[in-house]
Design brief:
The protein is mainly α. It contains 4 helices and no strands. The chain has 2 domains: 31 residues; 42 residues, no CATH class.
């Protein structure tokens, strides 16, 4: 009996997640930050530009450069 390819892929993905858990969580927290100012900056960029890619480090950096000074000066 042959094992379906999806089962093999699921097992491989599980092994990768277990092995790289900390790196995956670190990357996730940079893409979806819990800090309110960073979170609001990314939301503003996404509303302003529908093509905004929060997976891109350079796009996030440009977004923070643009919005953090504005958001941090608000009361």
């Amino acid at each position: 009996m042959k094992t379906p390819a999806i089962v093999i892929l699921a097992i491989a993905a599980s092994v990768i997640v277990v092995a790289e858990r900390d790196q995956i969580l670190d990357e996730w927290s940079t893409i979806y930050p819990s800090e309110p100012t960073l979170k609001n900056s990314l939301q503003l960029c996404a509303m302003e530009d529908r093509q905004f890619n929060r997976l891109s480090t350079s796009a996030r950096r440009r977004c923070y450069d643009k919005w953090l000074p504005v958001l941090e000066t608000r009361p």
